[in-house]
Design a protein that fits this description.
Blueprint (H helix, E strand, L loop, with lengths): L7 H15 L3 H28 L3 H4 L1 H30 L14 H20 L6
Length: 131
């Protein structure tokens, strides 16, 4: 780097700095976002491994518990409720006021858990060893 006698280099640096602040380099932003996402996923994986290795059911059993709760909600809506209404109407000749479980919050959780389970099934089918 030589001596800038004219001052054009300093002006060019200042203009470059202003331009980069107004229109930042997308590839650099994407790299930073990807690095952040990777670090978050790695942190979550470490947490998952620690929880799964714990012998206490309260720590390692919360995921299966959530799965069972969501599964029971689905079972009630699609099997328990129709059967209960049928039995009440057929054998007791009465109409029972039973309500379906609100699955609007449970389904995203259940589908997310099933998706994670599906990834593990894919790994097992392709002989990917668990670490």
């Amino acid at each position: 780097m030589g001596l800038d006698v004219t001052g054009i280099g300093s002006v060019a640096d200042a203009v470059s700095t202003v331009v980069n602040k107004i229109w930042p380099d997308k590839t650099e932003q994407e790299k930073e976002q990807m690095a952040l996402a990777i670090s978050i996923v790695q942190g979550q994986l470490a947490t998952n491994q620690t929880e799964a290795g714990n012998r206490t059911l309260f720590v390692s059993g919360w995921r299966p518990f959530i799965g069972w709760v969501c599964g029971l909600g689905c079972a009630w809506n699609w099997a328990g409720l129709p059967i209960s209404l049928f039995v009440a109407a057929t054998f007791f000749h009465t109409k029972v006021d039973l309500h379906p479980a609100d699955l609007s919050e449970m389904m995203p959780l259940l589908l997310g858990m099933l998706g994670l389970g599906g990834l593990r099934t894919y790994e097992k089918l392709n002989n990917v060893a668990a670490k």
